[in-house]
């Protein structure tokens, strides 16, 4: 007697949302915003087009969800404890880790950053999330400077440091061989050393 075909396990709403977010990220990593379409995301996820509207309301809703998840992962990576390292050293190691410095991950970030300039919904989400990222950098810098008995303007140094790190991402996407993890780590410390010491 032939075995009855097995049904696919039904995904929970949260799992279905994650599946669509993963598909959107895969599309953006492959071809930037041109690949971020209802048809391509649905095909990547192996679901019907209507599920995107059902779970996110619109493609803007999906875009915001992807951005928020990317930020949550980014913040978790830079705030994760790394035994044996000071907070600032752990932050630098996180920023050049494979999870963050991955070529595909950085391509997704560049796609999202490019959309912030023209998409007011995404821009609002960016403003909300960026403050937590900057606060984490400011806190690490202030702690490192205090440990060395130095007084620094942590807000200004953090702003410059974030620009430096963002620049690494751009360079890594444009010419990966010219911006390795080791290159980025060395550049981070060349910038930080005058402010917080070795």
Characterize the overall form. Answer: elongated
**Spatial extent as radius of gyration:** 20 Å
The percentage helix is over 70%
Main β-sheet, in a few words? Answer: none
CATH topology of the largest domain: Tetracycline Repressor, domain 2
Q: Please name the CATH architecture of the largest domain.
A: Orthogonal Bundle
Write out the CATH superfamily name of the largest domain: Tetracycline Repressor, domain 2
Structural write-up:
- The chain has ten helices and no strands.
- It folds into two domains: 11-57, Arc Repressor Mutant, subunit A; 67-196, Orthogonal Bundle (Tetracycline Repressor, domain 2), CATH 1.10.357.10.
- The chain is an all-alpha fold.
In short:
By secondary structure, this protein is mainly α. Helices cover 74% and strands 0% of the residues. It has 2 domains: 11-57, Arc Repressor Mutant, subunit A (Orthogonal Bundle); 67-196, Orthogonal Bundle (Tetracycline Repressor, domain 2).
């Amino acid at each position: 007697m032939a075995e009855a075909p097995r049904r696919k396990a039904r995904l929970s709403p949260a799992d279905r949302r994650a599946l669509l977010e993963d598909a959107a990220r895969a599309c953006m990593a492959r071809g930037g915003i041109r690949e971020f379409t209802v048809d391509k995301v649905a095909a990547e996820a192996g679901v019907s087009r209507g599920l995107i509207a059902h779970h996110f309301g619109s493609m803007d809703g999906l875009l915001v969800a992807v951005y928020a998840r990317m930020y949550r992962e980014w913040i978790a990576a830079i705030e994760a404890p790394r035994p044996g390292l000071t907070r600032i050293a752990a932050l630098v190691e996180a920023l050049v880790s494979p999870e963050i410095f991955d070529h595909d991950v950085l391509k997704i970030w560049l796609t999202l950053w490019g959309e912030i300039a023209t998409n007011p919904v995404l821009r609002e989400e960016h403003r909300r999330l960026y403050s937590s990222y900057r606060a984490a950098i400011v806190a690490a810098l202030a702690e490192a400077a205090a440990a060395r008995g130095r007084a620094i303007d942590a807000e200004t140094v953090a702003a410059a440091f974030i620009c430096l790190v963002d620049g690494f991402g751009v360079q890594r996407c444009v010419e990966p061989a010219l911006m390795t993890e080791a290159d980025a780590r060395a550049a981070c410390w060349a910038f930080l050393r005058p402010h917080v010491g070795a």
